[in-house]
From TrEMBL, chains A, B:
The active site is at E269. Pfam families: Peptidase_M32. Keywords: Carboxypeptidase, Hydrolase, Metal-binding, Metalloprotease, Protease, Zinc. It comes from Sinobaca qinghaiensis. This is Metal-dependent carboxypeptidase.
Length: 505, 505
C-alpha cells in the first residue's frame, strides 16, 4: 500500500474512494440487470441506475472536486504521492469534459439518446432507416457541438477519440487503417477464392449448455483467472465487468448448436477480466484502477481469444478435454480438421459474428463514415448507400437490408462516436504485443501446449495490466514493444496464418 | 398510480425516489454479498456499502429533508395526497431518531458495534463470555443513552421497541409473554414426557441439492410467488429481500442430510417475499413501500411456514411430489409418519433450530433479560447464569457452554435491543390471522389440499400486504381480526396440534 503523506492526500483519497464506491455500485446494478435480475423490476432499476449516475456526476463536477483538483495539482513538494497527482490529472480531464457541456445541452442530449435507442431498435426491427435518421442527425449535431466545446487540434473527430483512445488522432488512424485495409483486402480475396475451405458441419451438433459451462470454467482456470476474485454467469450480450481488482466478473452466452459462441466468448471476456484482476494494488480505490483505454482493453481480450484460444497448440492441449464434454460430436474429426474449422474465415454481414481476418474491415468502414459525418462531408441520409458500397468494396458482400447493414449496431444510437476504432486498434496492439512477447518468451508455443499460461499472463501483467490507467496507450505500447503502434505485426500474422490455412500465396 | 397534485408533492416524491434508489442499491449490494460475490472482494465491498449507507444517512438527515417534512406536514389543503403526508410522517420519525443522537456518539457507537461483531465471533468460537462482556456492557450503555435521547413513556425499553414494533410496549409484552410462557411450559413438558414420539431417522438420508432446489421452486410456485419479479438463490444464512415490489428475492440453504432446512426455509422466506411482492403499487418509491414492522413481517413467513407448510393437507398435496425428487428416501414411510416427523417438537439449545412449539420460549427468555439489562436491573456479567437458569426453567435443558447458550446469536453484538420480541409477536399474529382467515375462507383445508393457495395469499394481500407501512401493526391486526393482539389463538393452535401429535391431555 501507498503511504499517504499528508492530510491533503488523505482527504483526496477519501474523495476518490467515494467516487469509486458509486462506480462500483453502478457496476453491480449493471451486472445484475444484465445477468439475472427479475424482468418486472427493470423499469424501477432504470430509475435507480439513473439516480446513482446523476449523483456520481454531481460529485465529479462538484466544487469539492474542483477544490481537490486545484489543491493536489497545484501542490509543490513531495508530500503528495505521484499516484495521487496522476489520479488528480485523470479526474481533471473528466471534470473538464463534464463541465464544458452546458447543463441544458447535456440534459437534452441524455433524453435524446435514451429515446433514440428505442427508436433504433424499432427501426432495425422494421428495416426502416428513415425512421432512425432524424435521431441520428441530431446525435451527430450534438457530437459535433461537443467536439467544439471540448476543443481539438486539426479535426473535430479527435475530440471524440479522446474519450476512448487518448492520444489517438485522425491523422494516425488514417495512415494505420489505410495500411490495414490494403493489406487485408487481398487476403480476404485469397480466402474467398480458395478451394481449400474447411469442413465445418460438425461444429453445429447439440452441445449441452452445462457441458459448455464446465469447459468454459476449465479454460478460465488455465488462463489463471482467479475465481476467488470473480465468477462466471450467463447473459444475452456477454461482457466482463470489474468492480475492483478483487471482484471481476465474466459473463458468457451458451448457444447449444454452436459451442464456439461460449468457448471463444468466454476466452475473450476472460482476457478483459485478467486485465482488471491484475491492476496494481496501489491504484485501488483511485480513478487509475481501470483500463488504460478501450483499445488497450480490447488488445487483452483479443490476445487471449485469437493468439492463445485459436492457436493450434491450445487445441493440442484442449481438444481431448473438449471431447470429454461432447463425446460424440467430434468422432472422426482430426485435430487438424477441428483447428481449421474454428479458424474459418469468410466475408459476412454482421460485425459481431465476423472472423479474425475480416473483422478489421468492418471497423474501418465505420470509422471512415463516422469521421466524415463528424467533419460534415457525409450526410446521415447517404449512410445506407455508402455503407453498402464500402461493404462491397472491402468484403465483397452487399447487405440485403439496412437491418443487416447500417442499422446493425446500437453504438451510434447512444452517441458513441469515436468508439469503433478501438476494436481494430485492439487487434493491432494484440499482434504487436504478441511479437514483443515472443522475444521474452521464445517458448510461447510450448507453454500453450502444456496449458502453462501463467508466464504469458505474467508478461501481460508486467507490461500492461499493472499500470491500469496510470500510463497512456501510447506509453504502454512504446514501453512494452519498443516502438509506436505498428500494424505490420497484425498483417504479417494474418497473412501467414490464412495463406497457410487456405493455401494461397 | 397516484396523481401528484402539486409542485410540492412532485418535488417531495422525487426526493423520496432518491432515498428509495439508495435503499435499493444498498439492498442489492447486500444481496450480492450474501449470495455469490467473490470472496476476495469483501473488504472493498464493506467500504462501498459503508459509503452508500453514509450517503443515505446524510440525505435523510439533510436540510433538504427537513424542508420537505416541514412543507408537507405543515401543508393545509387537498393538493398533497394522503400517501405523501403519511410518507412524510414516517420519514419524520426516522429523521427525528437519526438527528437526536449526537454525531460523535453515533460514530463511536458505529465503530464499537463493527468491532464487537468480530469480538463476539471470536468469543463464541472460544466459548469465552468474558471476552465479549466489556463490549456488550458498552453497547447496553449506548442503548440506554439512545433511549434517553429518543424519549419514552414509563420504560426505556419502549424507546427501543419503537424501531422494530411501533406501538408495542413493555406493559403489553409483559402481559402477552407471561400468558404464552405459562401456556407453553406444560405443553413442552407434555411433549417431553410423551412416549408417542415420532420416528425421524428417514429425514436424514442424502437428498441431492439440485433436487431440493427443484422442489423448493415447485413450492414457491404453488405459493404464487412471482418469478418474473423475483428469483431463488443459495446462501449461508437464508433471507428474503425486496428491492421494490417488482424485485423481491428469496434465498435458501441446502443441507443434503436434512432436506427440511431448504424446504421449510424456502417457505418461510417465501412468506416474507409474498408480503413485499404484494405491497400496493401506489406506495412504490415511497418510504411506505415496506413491511409495517418486524413482527408483521415475521407473521407472514411463519404463517406460510407453519400454518400452510406444516399442515397435514399441504403434505397430502405434496408428499408424492417430494418423493419424485428422492424416490428411495421415503420407501415405507406413510404420509402420517412423515407428517409426524416434520412436526417433531423437543426442547433444544439453539433458537434458530427450535421447533414451532418451543420457539417462543427462546424468545421470551431473551426478552426478559434484554428488558432488565436496559432498565439496569440485570448486569451483563450475570447474563450467563440467568440465561442457563431460564433455559432450565422454561425448556428443561441446560446449555453445556456459553457458545451454545448466551453467546449463540449475533443480535446483541450489533446492538439490536428490542428486536427479539418481534419473532414471538410474529407467531402470535400469524395464529390470530389464521383464525380470522378461517371465517372468510372456511375451505382453507381443501384449498391447501388442492394446492390452490391463491385465495389464501389474496386474503393476506387484502388484509396485510397491500398496506405496506401505511398502517401500524396495531391497526392492521385490529382491522384484519377485529381485536387487539391476542395470544390465545397461538396457544390454542399449539395445544390442539401437539396434544394430538404426542397424545397427551
Amino acid at each position: 500500500m501507498t503511504t499517504l503523506n499528508s492530510d491533503l492526500e488523505q482527504a483526496f483519497r477519501s474523495h476518490l474512494k467515494k467516487i469509486s464506491s458509486y462506480e462500483q455500485a453502478i457496476s453491480l446494478l449493471n451486472w445484475d440487470s444484465r445477468t439475472g435480475a427479475p424482468k418486472k423490476g427493470m423499469d424501477e432499476r432504470a430509475d435507480v441506475s439513473g439516480t446513482m449516475a446523476t449523483e456520481l456526476f454531481k460529485i465529479k463536477t462538484s466544487d469539492e472536486t474542483a477544490k481537490y483538483l486545484h489543491a493536489v495539482l497545484g501542490h509543490q513538494g513531495t508530500d503528495v504521492s505521484a499516484t495521487s497527482k496522476q489520479a488528480a490529472a485523470e479526474l481533471k480531464k473528466e471534470y473538464d469534459r463534464m463541465t464544458k457541456i452546458p447543463e441544458d445541452e447535456f440534459q437534452e442530449y441524455s433524453i435524446l439518446t435514451a429515446k433514440s435507442e428505442n427508436v433504433w431498435e424499432e427501426a432495425k426491427e422494421a428495416d426502416d432507416f428513415a425512421m432512425f435518421a432524424p435521431y441520428l442527425e441530431k446525435i451527430v449535431d450534438f457530437s459535433r457541438r461537443f467536439a467544439e466545446h471540448w476543443g481539438y487540434e486539426s479535426h473535430p473527430y479527435n475530440a471524440l477519440l479522446e474519450d476512448y483512445e487518448p492520444g489517438m488522432t485522425v491523422e494516425k488512424l488514417d495512415a494505420i487503417f489505410a495500411k490495414v485495409r490494403e493489406g487485408l483486402i487481398p487476403l480476404v480475396e485469397g480466402v474467398t477464392s480458395s478451394d481449400k475451405k474447411p469442413e465445418t458441419d460438425f461444429l453445429f451438433s447439440t452441445f449441452p449448455k452445462d457441458k459448455q459451462r464446465a469447459f468454459s470454467l476449465d479454460v478460465l482456470k488455465q488462463m489463471t483467472y482467479d475465481f476467488e476474485a470473480g465468477r462466471l454467469d450467463e447473459t444475452v450480450h456477454p461482457f466482463a465487468i470489474g468492480l475492483n481488482p478483487n471482484d471481476v466478473r465474466v459473463t458468457t452466452k451458451y448457444d447449444e448448436s454452436d459451442f464456439r459462441t461460449a468457448v471463444f466468448g468466454t476466452i475473450h471476456e476472460g482476457g478483459h477480466a485478467l486485465y482488471e484482476q491484475n491492476i496494481g494494488e496501489e491504484l485501488a480505490g483511485t480513478i487509475l484502477s481501470d483500463g488504460a483505454s478501450m483499445g488497450i482493453h480490447e488488445s487483452q481480450s483479443l490476445f487471449w481469444e485469437n493468439f492463445v484460444g485459436r492457436h493450434p497448440k491450445f487445441w493440442e492441449k484442449n481438444y481431448e478435454l473438449l471431447q470429454t464434454y461432447a463425446p460424440d460430436q467430434f468422432t472422426g474429426v482430426s485435430l487438424h480438421d477441428f483447428y481449421r474449422a474454428i479458424n474459418e474465415a469468410k466475408p459476412s454481414l454482421i460485425r459481431i459474428e465476423a472472423d479474425e481476418l475480416t473483422y478489421c474491415l468492418h471497423i474501418i468502414l465505420r470509422y471512415e463514415m463516422e469521421k466524415q459525418l463528424i467533419e460534415g462531408s457525409l450526410k446521415v441520409k447517404d449512410l445506407p448507400r455508402v455503407w453498402n458500397e464500402k461493404m462491397q468494396e472491402y468484403l465483397g458482400v452487399i447487405p440485403p437490408s439496412n437491418a443487416k447493414g447500417v442499422l446493425q449496431d446500437v453504438h451510434w444510437a447512444f452517441g458513441a462516436f469515436g468508439y469503433f476504432p478501438s476494436y481494430a486498434l485492439g487487434y493491432i496492439y494484440a499482434a504487436q504485443l504478441k511479437a514483443a512477447m515472443d522475444k521474452d518468451l521464445p517458448a510461447f508455443d510450448e507453454l500453450v501446449e502444456k496449458g502453462d499460461l501463467k508466464p504469458i499472463r505474467e508478461w501481460m501483467t508486467k507490461n500492461i495490466h499493472q499500470y491500469g490507467r496510470s500510463r497512456t496507450p501510447i506509453e504502454l505500447i512504446k514501453e512494452a514493444t519498443g516502438e509506436d503502434i505498428n500494424p505490420d505485426y497484425l498483417l504479417q500474422y494474418l497473412s501467414e496464418k490464412y495463406k497457410d490455412l487456405y493455401q494461397f500465396s
